[in-house]
Amino acid sequence: MARDREQEPHPDAADPAAERELTIDELAEQTRVPSRTIRFYQSEGALPKPTIRGRVAYYGQAHVERLAQITELQDRGLRIRAIRDVLARTAKGEFSLNEWIGSHDQLSSPWASDRPKVMTEAELAAELEGRRPGLLGELVRVGAVERRGDAYLVESPARLGLLLRLDAVGMPLHTAEGAFAIMQKQLGRLAEDLTSYFVKNADALGDDVDATYAELRPVSLEAVRLVFAREMERSQRRATESGAAAVLTKQKRRRTRR
Predict the structure, then answer these.
(1) What gap in Å lies between CA 114 and CA 24, rounded to an integer?
(2) How many helices and strands (H and E) does the chain possess?
(3) Residue 1: pLDDT band by 50, 70, 90 thresholds?
(4) Residue 200 pLDDT
């Protein structure tokens, strides 16, 4: 009987780590989040209020876990108010944090492989080999490449390739860049409108939203190509019928005479 009593756990022998209370300085040390930042999170409603006893605020494991969640969401680019809203919705059971992170990561994944690239002078010279004199300076002026010390930053290698193709057939770079600016402005607005549209109509995306979104990418790109091609046909037909396109014929004739 004595041995049995010795083996019985003490009623207060719970996991000390799970029940441990922390002051704000101890919480900051454990989570590596500065005390001032912790107070800021509290003021924004992203971190639950601590327990106050006397004049001391005490924090628990829930605060440790919440700070880890905040850090994870910040790493994905969210600001504190957006983080507060996401965590409030997870607390209501609308979705789990892991579900939200999965959707966020899918939505944030790139649609194109075109990424900024740093090129040495030799690499860029090889890219421009055989082309007209002064081309590099013009590319810098239109912003296609940017000098960085003894190298060059190419913000969009794909865009650079398109500019070089148009330059090769005689289109001035500033004209080509102007066309890109128009497309970027209009397609940027289209992207915003479509994103808002699908967010508002999320219930119509089906039960497997991830699969729907995965298919939406190639379909959207093909749809843009299709609609743009048809609209260009209509626009050019109207320009021809109205006589506005005659200037193109005049320019062609002028070049032929040279």
Answers:
(1) 45
(2) 13, 5
(3) very low
(4) 87
Question: Sorting pLDDT into bands at 50, 70 and 90, what band is 99?
Answer: confident
Cα separation, 99 vs 103, in Å, equals 6
Return the ∠ at Cα 144 (arms to 135 and 125), rounded to 5°: 45
* DSSP character string of 50-108: PEEETTEEEB-HHHHHHHHHHHHHHHTT--HHHHHHHHHHHHTTSS-HHHHHHHHHHHH
Per DSSP, the three-state class of 146 is strand
Give the strand pairing for 51-53 and 146-148.
Answer: unpaired
CA 154 – CA 144 distance, rounded (Å)? 6
CB 72 within 8 A of CB 101: yes
Q: How far apart are CA 89 and CA 96, in angstroms?
A: 9
Q: Which domains does the chain have, with CATH numbers?
A: 2-108 (1.10.1660.10), 110-173 (no CATH)
**If you search the block for the tokens 């590596």, which residue do you land on?**
32
- Residue pair 57/23 in contact (Cβ under 8 Å)? The answer is yes
Other CB atoms within a 10 A radius of the CB of residue 210 amount to 12
Which tokens hold the place of 216?
A: 């939406």
* Nearest C-alpha neighbor of 103 from the set 214, 220, 210, 208: 210
Residue 21 structure tokens = 């209370």
pLDDT band at 12 (very low <50, low <70, confident <90, very high): very low
Nearest CA to 57 out of 43, 39, 40 is that of 39
